[in-house]
Amino acid sequence: MENLFSCLCSSLMFASNRQRFLKGEGPHLMNIMLKERKASRNGALRTLDFAMTGVEGKDNCQKIVDILGLRTIFPLFMKPPKGNKRSGETRTENEEHVISCIASLVRNCTGSNRQRVFNKFTENDHE
After folding, report:
1. Distance from first CA to last CA of the chain, Å, rounded?
2. How is residue 49 annotated by DSSP?
């Protein structure tokens, strides 16, 4: 399974594939995998990181906010998932992916979506 996520991440390095990812409802599927807390969680987080990075990831960032993906990303920011022994991912790598996703959201979202991202930092009395 990790090989599939690695292939997907490699394909997302090419800008036109990010639009295909968006049209194929990739952000929505990755959000579902993050919610399930199964073995696919780390790969889904890494894939979202690749999909949202850079200027080409702007549409994916907007989509994540629209599908209420902040509800799944911000809890990972507060407590990153443990690493996966099989794939060799560590907690540090997962923290890096979460922070990269949030940085991409802040950088690429505009208007009310950007305000929603900033509001996530202040909800629950700045928890």
Report:
1. 34
2. H
Q: Which DSSP letter does residue 14 get?
A: S
Enter the tokens of residue 25. Answer: 């409802």
Q: What is the per-residue pLDDT across 85-122, written as a single tens digit (0 to 9) for each?
A: 666 667 888 899 999 999 999 999 999 999 999 999 88
User: What is the distance between the alpha carbons of residues 4 and 40, in angstroms, rounded to a whole number?
Assistant: 10
pTM to 2 decimals? 0.87
Q: Is 13 helix (H, G, I), strand (E, B) or coil?
A: coil
DSSP code per residue over 53-103? SSGGGHHHHHHHHHTTTHHHHHHHHHSPPPPBTTTTB-HHHHHHHHHHHHH
Report the C-alpha dihedral over residues 93, 120, 20, 26, rounded to 10 degrees.
Answer: 70
The token duo for 100 is 């990269």
Token representation of residue 126: 């700045």
Contact 56, 15 (CB under 8 A): yes
Tell me how crowded residue 127 is: count the other CB atoms within 10 A of its CB.
8
